[in-house]
Amino acid sequence: MKTFSKYWSIFQITLINSLAYPGELVGRSLMIIPFMWIFYQLWKVTFSAAGADIINGLTLRDTLWYLMLAETIELGRPPIARTMSENVKDGSIAYILNKPYDFLLYQFSTAMGETIFRAILNAVFGGLTVLWLVGAPKHPEGFLIALPAIFGAWILHFCINAMIGLSAFVVEDVSAFTWIYQKLAFIFGGMLIPLDFYPQWLQTLAKFLPFSSAIYGPARLFVTPTAQFFINVMSLQLAWIFVLTFLLVVAYRRGLTQLTVNGG
Amino acid sequence: MKELKFLIAIWNTNLQSAMEYRAAFLTQVIGMMANNFIYFAIWIIFFERFKDVRGWGVNDMYVTFGVLASSFGIVNLLFGNAFMLSDIIAKGRLDYYLSLPRPVLLHTIASRSAASGMGDFLYGFISYGLSGYFTWDGLARYVLATLLAATVFASFLILTQSLAFWFGMMTNFSNLVLNAMLTFGIYPITLFDSYAKLILFTLIPAALMGAIPAEFIRAFTWQVLGELLLGAIGFLSLAIFVFNRGLRRYESGSAIQIEV
Fold first, then answer.
1. A28, A29, A45, A58: best mutation site toward chain B, by most B Cβ within 10 Å?
2. What does pTM read for this prediction?
3. What is the span of the domain harbouring residue B110?
């Protein structure tokens, strides 16, 4: 319990810190507005050209609310890999590693502290924009049902990003890896196009990968909050969390042996 | 001519500096090209499923994305500080450039080079090559269109980031308008109604960085060339004017700055 309270305190401190610059927080969250507007233009034309109200089980309204939640998850997460890379480059990693806490749990606590308000504001601005464009979601309760999956999505993002960040122990600059990860998440996570619109073979592949558990699963659950879908999303997500956490711990232990600290 | 020699000397220094870390340079170039390939796959999937957006097909996307990537890349490679100008102004880091006998704006924006810009620049040519619109005279138009689009883009960055002279730290606003410019530049222009198009030619001139250069590359017309030239000259003049007006308001900080 004492161990847990230590990380809870780190989480709280970061959470409060994230409110220190409200202008910064709000300014960053405004980005979701042009994104949602342009998505609306694209999908309005696409649905109209297809001459259908429903494409692969999704209406225009579902698609927009799906994309709103997908963007909220993506824009809400902090750049953990870049932060870890900066820590290695400027030597401040030395001051983090010698403290009486677990390095990975510390990073997770700070990442979650930074995520909460970012995500809330993105959801508010994105939600208001989509509400204005297409009206209320068909299942508003879907948001509550999707909450555990959203939390799971952040854990998955953390595991993958922390592994990319750990590669800084060896290569120092990780920006190329973060770009590629982000784009893989875009394509296999269904960030810009819901996976339901993909060709069948690609859907099958993408839905099995962790990217879909991190974006598509929670976003689709929001617009289709059925018990069966909830079980499917959560079970696949938990399996990936288990696998990726294991890989992350192994990568961390191996990475420590390769780390060279630059000054400090 | 004197300024061109000066610019070449700065770019040469930037290149030598980047070559000091060859592995990192290559990782960034190749990484950015891979990044663009993966991103574009989304559009291939989209057009495979929905065929076209009001007459705009995947081939048009290849050209638009190509010219946008190349123009973004060339600015990032040769005028990398244009992306950080508001920070430089707000933190009093213009002092260094003001103390030297060279044009402040040119010296400031050319003093940083991002290796990933080379990846974007090269990827653009590949994208054009794959578009199905490739011809040799089209390639010449591609180069010209890229230079003009890059001029508009760099001017837009200077213009928006120079607002820091009046409003201080503008990081969020700068990121917001940069993202808007790139996002609107990539999407098919046929999506937008006439009011939105007016915005895309003026307030956020994304059309002059994506759709209009792409139209010029596909087929030469004097009208489109005129639009591009007018846009490039107009925005560049406005950017220089706003920067110089802002510079009169610049206040130096007392922090000790080290330029490396």
1. A45
2. 0.86
3. 2-247
